[in-house]
Amino acid sequence: MSPGLDPDAFLGGALRLHQPPRGAHRAGTDAALLAHLLPVPSGARACDVGASTGAVGLGIARLNPGAEVVLVEREPDLVALALRNIGENGLGDRARVIPADVLAPGAARRAAGLVPNLADLVVTNPPFFDASRDRPSPVPARAGAHTFAEAGLDAWIRTCTDLLRPGGAFGMIHRADALPACLDALRGRFGAIRVRPVHARTERPAIRILVTARKGSRAALALLPPLVLQGPDGRFTPEAEALHRAPP
């Protein structure tokens, strides 16, 4: 993998992000929405599961100066870029990387450092596609980032649950049509589930869902008002524009 020499500007330039070449999975709107999704108390530890180059976790660190972040990523090339991004942004005192496979057996995960009750909150942008139903990308790095083995989402969320302390907060972005699978995976593990549909435009069906939940809660599910990304002119709506930036 040969990333470009110049980092991308992320969150309106608040974060400088080295990314893989074009054609591989690169951070964009999904990562920006996820970085803003949960309130992060000062002193809290946030864990970005499946962190890739660290856009979401390091975005959380930039948006919340009192937070510590842990990036979990299995691919060596992406781990190297995540470490580079920590240094690029001067976050070495508040961010670290755990090289680990989220879907490994429990003993292997814990030996790698994915121990129970590691974090106060967990955020994740899991692979979006099921290898048993969807055709994977011909680009290996992109296919690995986007495609699960069968039943992978349940195992992925099981690991997220294990990493969270009791009562901890969970946040996820996924395809809109994956809502039933997401709710199935959260059932019995989380309550106070909040689902927010994300639409490219008001007249179009949702393309994403933003999901938050609380570990061990028994509170009811709520469906929140939608987030619309673009106005009639094709430009970001004011809310979407704000979510692509860090506060001044």
- Spans with pLDDT under 50 lasting ≥5 residues? 136-146
What is the fold-level CATH name, i.e. the topology? Rossmann fold
For the sheet with most strands, the description reads: 9 strands, mixed
CATH class: Alpha Beta
CATH homologous superfamily grouping: Vaccinia Virus protein VP39
Global mean pLDDT? 91
The structure class reads alpha/beta
Order of helices and strands: EEHEHEHEHEEHEHEHEEEEH
Helix content: 25-40%
Radius of gyration, in angstroms, nearest whole number = 17 Å
Q: Based on DSSP secondary structure assignment, what is the total number of beta strands? A: 13
Gross morphology = globular
Name of the CATH architecture: 3-Layer(aba) Sandwich
Q: What is the CA-CA span between the terminal residues? A: 34 Å
Strand content is 25-35%
The number of distinct structural domains comes to: 1
Number of helical segments?
A: 8
Describe the structure.
Residues 31-133 form the Methyltransferase small domain. It comes from Methylobacterium soli. This is Methyltransferase. Keywords: Methyltransferase, S-adenosyl-L-methionine, Transferase. The structure is a single chain. By secondary structure, the protein is of the alpha/beta class. The protein has one domain (8-243): 3-Layer(aba) Sandwich (Rossmann fold), CATH 3.40.50. It has helices spanning 29-35, 55-63, 76-88, 106-112, 140-146, 152-163, 179-186, 238-243; strands at 8-10, 15-17, 45-49, 68-73, 95-99, 119-124, 129-130, 147-148, 164-175, 190-199, 206-215, 222-223, 227-228. The protein is globular, with a radius of gyration of 17 Å. The two termini are 34 Å apart.
